[in-house]
Prior knowledge:
The complex is a heterodimer of chains A (75) and B (172).
Chain A (H helix, E strand, L loop, with lengths): L2 E6 L6 H11 L6 E6 L4 H12 L2 E8 L2 E7 L3
Parallel strand pairs in A: 1-2
Antiparallel strand pairs in A: 2-4, 3-4
Chain B lengths: L1 H8 L4 H19 L6 H14 L9 H4 L14 H19 L11 H20 L4 H6 L7 H25 L1
Amino acid sequence: MTEIKLDCMYEACPIPLLKAIKKLEKMDIGDVLILETDHSCSIKNVVEWAKKQGHNVDYMEVGEGEWEIYIEKRK
Amino acid sequence: MKFYEKIIKKPWPYWVGGILLGVLNIILLALTGKAWKITTGFLYWGLSFLELLGFNCLDWYYFSVYSNQLRKGETFIHNYYTILNLAVIVGALVAVLWASEFKFKKIKNRRQLFFGLLGGIIMGYGTRLSFGCNIGAYFSAIPSFSLHGWVFAIFMFIGAFIGTKILFKYLL
Lengths: 75, 172
């Protein structure tokens, strides 16, 4: 299992979601993607998308208005 | 604490936001008799800046085709749209402060700056041709039974679809 960081700071919709889709395509099952974002929409649309794809997903607010979204690739 | 977490802190579902926007738009129309628009306000701010520089903007061909919708006694700065735009900014500020999510966002790199400016210029030009942005030309137009809202909607979805494909394939 590897952890891969994805920097989406200062970027707005739909870039965090598109970047996550692109990155996850290249990852192996079991790898964890850590998406760093300060765009509050991301904790909605990225999380919803990942759930729909069947990945394990969670997020945490790491600073004021800054989040890390953790996506474990499941398939 | 549970109320704060649920209502103030967490993002609302899309359907809640949609219903609220719809209801508030009806209230605004009923109270003021005018549809909600955003970019028209920015047009006026730009015009007032150009007037400071000595241009006489109202002589432009554009305003012989499109009416400028100011009421009597309103100026480019002192008008309905300025108040609405400031209210949107103040409302958003209150919301992020309350959720303690306020922060200044930096420009990531030159690429983001370049594409941001380019996108802004194209959008600004487009809004002047289509009676507004996706608020004025779409969100306020369709409930007013205006055909231009539907035309705008179709091309907005086509544009967003193509734009996302280009973004995904070449720019990320």
